[in-house]
Amino acid sequence: MTTPGQTVGPFFGYALPYAGGEQLVDRSHPDAIRLHGTVLDGAGDPVPDALLEIWQADGAGRVSREPGSLHRDGYTFTGWGRAASDRTGTYSFTTVRPGATEPGHAPFIALTVLARGLLDRLFTRVYLPGQDFAADPLLSALPRERAETLCAATDPEGLRFDVVLQGERETVFLNHD
Amino acid sequence: MSDAATQSEISAEIDALAGRGGAQPKLDYPPYRSSLLRHPTKDPQHADPETIERAVPVFGHRDVDPLEADLTIQHRGEPIGERIVVTGRVTDAAGKPVREQLVEVWQANASGRYIHKRDQHPAPIDPNFTGVGRCLTDQDGWYRFTTIKPGPYPWRNHTNAWRPAHIHFSLFGNQFTERLITQMYFPGDPLFGLDPIFCSITDQRARERLIARYDHELTVPEWSTGYRWDIVLGGREQTLTEAE
Lengths: 177, 244
Ligand SMILES: [Fe+3]
What we know:
The structure holds two protein chains of two kinds. By secondary structure, chain A is mainly beta. Helix content of chain A is 5%, strand content 28%. Chain B is of the alpha+beta class. Chain B has helices at 7-17, 51-54, 196-199, 204-207, 236-241, and strands spanning 45-46, 83-92, 102-107, 132-136, 142-148, 153-155, 161-163, 166-171, 180-185, 213-214, 225-228, 231-233. In chain B, the strands form three sheets. In chain B, strands 2, 5, 10, 11 and 12 form a five-stranded mixed sheet that branches. A four-stranded antiparallel sheet of chain B has the order 4-3-8-9, with no helix packed on it. Strand 10 (174-175) of chain A pairs parallel with strand 1 of chain B. Fe (iii) ion binds at residues 163, 166, 168 of chain B. Residues 163, 166, 168 of chain B line the site of fe (iii) ion.
């Protein structure tokens, strides 16, 4: 019998975030992009006490088996990062665009969302802009406007992806069972 | 800021929702007021896990110092409170151990106070206790922490709201889809039935899986008491349909 989840609560800020957590690659990396956005609640207000974790393949679609995510050396791509939202509900990662891990499928970054007030973690995916929805099993299974909540937008610094916990433009969250 | 509800109003809401969810917390759980605007209203979309989601981040001795598993040695002096060992085994739903994987914990001190700057509870800060630990599971999935038994603490969900004593746990499994953040509780806590976070798992037998067991075999003579808490990751849908 599996162990139930519980909210991350309000006091994770001194325990889970760590120096370099949001930097999967150095900003000077030739392929470095910024993945950033705002976490919003059902009233459209920013969520200042959320924690986001990403897990992704490198640019060639390779899954890293390297340790070192908690102790960045500036060279090793581990594929994992953690960032808390700030007072304005904004989060930011420095990373690279992932390659697809399945031939023909749209490449994505796996994202876990945690927050005070959220009783269990949520899973979602951040797809790169400009994907062929019809070719991807998840994007094609969703109505167009729902699938679009999973797609990052291009912005001058890289990729923008808002997480909407509730409401009209609620992000699609995933169940993998 | 604080909700005007009394404990008896919250308890009535908890009672009305008893058994209405499953073996996982009910995300839409109004007795926990902060969940009102923070729970998704649409059903989760099924997605077959892809390669990246069937893999999991790797952590190693580069990431975690073995000393981080002892929360009582992070400062010059001994922290105040009941010294405890908390240990158990992490497995996946198939019973396979989760080997060499990261376990993170954080908690209040013996008087129910977090070091976090937003914790306003007027209970003493212990200069010898931060309340943050990490370890890697061993080859058989075992984790082990030495710490101080946390105290219960008040919060502003409703008037006279108190959390049962708990340790926050963060775990990774054998797949990314098994990621778990939860809380471990102590046996016999009188606050269980009053707490909307604990009771958000409306199946009583399921929420009892969050309660550690006192284990005298783990108690160290002249040193600390011992608690055992095993963790099973993943396979969530099965827990709803499997007859126990
Ligand atoms: Fe807590």
